[in-house]
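REQUEST FORM: STRUCTURE PREDICTION
Request ID: SP-0412
Submitted by: Lab K.M.
Chain count: 1
Length (residues): 246
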Amino acid sequence: MLDYNIEAAVYDTTRGGVPRAEAAADAVLGLIPSTARTLLDIGCGTGLVTERIALGRPGLRVIGADASPGMARMAHQRIDAVTLADVRRLPLADAAVDAVTAVWLLHLLRPASAVRDVVAEVARVLRPGGVFVTTVDKDAGHDVGSDIDELFAPYLTSHPSDGAETVGGYGERYGLEQVAEARFVGHGQGRSPLTTARGVRQGKYASRLALPGNAAERLAMRLTGLPEPDRPRPDPAYRLLAFRRG
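STATUS: Completed
RESULT:
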């Protein structure tokens, strides 16, 4: 697992920057009712997406929450209201907000029960009629039919923590009904074999790949041997689901 206090300094530049953040924010806002007045972005990271959600909907009060002090400090430079919090235990009253968003968060959570706990907490802080918007199947969004995907295939985790069926099942358990979905392009996130090999060695694919023993090094070596190792493969496409609290 990455140390996000360290990763905060380079997170935006290594993950598509503003173009990816704008695409994410636009897709999220398309699923947020115009009547919403308060929105909580959990796992807000550096606040790059959070800020664009706020800019895209004047009059919407946007709050960020993240468990990493380094990320929260970065986010506070972009939005006024940021809380340092474990998103499984939010420092908010019941039925406190009109919307909750989670962009590229659920796939990182371990153990599997952590996703259940987050969905339960989201349902608690949402007002009746409020909306929860989250990315699902994040890692699968990177499957673009490339030669990198072919090498990843034998190591893929079969039960991702952010699987749409898993998240939807928890939503149903806690009174959240799926009402809509959207997709957006992860601009600048097309991987090259060399950057992917480096990420494999650094453990950046722990949420997606099972790499026991020296499997990580074997996979990294095979990746560096692919043709045109510096050329990025196509950008991923991410999926959002929207749930409404009954």
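NOTES: Strands lie at 38-42, 61-66, 82-84, 97-102, 126-136, 176-185, 237-245.
Reviewed by: T.R.
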